[in-house]
């Protein structure tokens, strides 16, 4: 209603949302709460009681599964404490999720994965603004982890039995100040080059969109210099 002007009133917005399957509103307080107009829509016949029940039922099923209606002694979540934070079990699960969510577009010549047994004596360069900057690695709404748990690409690759060199080229995602010589020097002397590029919350977040999908600043130039 306010941004896209798809509807004209709060009640019309509530009806359209319910018809579309939305059953939970993220509101900014009672004054502008769209779903407070559901009783009015129900009374006027714009929605049915059965539809309202269908929308509410999943919400309460979820709350039941979370144990919100059980005594605290019966709720397994009430026994959790800080000992589970960054526990080995959870870190292993995070690693598994990361490995299974990688998207590999090409693997010409079977370059990947990098195998530890093939790396002794190899020279590996990791370059780019995302290579060793923990601040830019986390997306919008991401938690802020303890630094000792953050493994940048550089830190992770340095655990391999290879001679690792590093060159950021530019220090932040917008990449306005670019040192071509730094990147070319590191990449030119390496057997394997890992280029770490992206956007990060400096460039795009909720309510901060972009008009194109190009790499910011000199990042494309950095990539071309690293692989030429």
From TrEMBL:
Gene3D superfamilies: Glycoside hydrolase family 3 C-terminal domain, Glycoside hydrolase, family 3, N-terminal domain. Residues 103-226 form the Glycoside hydrolase family 3 C-terminal domain. Keywords: Glycosidase, Hydrolase. GO terms for biological process: arabinan catabolic process; xylan catabolic process. GO terms for molecular function: alpha-L-arabinofuranosidase activity; xylan 1,4-beta-xylosidase activity. InterPro entries: BXL, GH, Glyco_hydro_3_C, Glyco_hydro_3_C_sf, Glyco_hydro_3_N_sf. It comes from the Eukaryota. The keyword Magnesium does not apply. This is XYL2 arabinofuranosidase. It comes from Zapornia atra (Henderson crake).
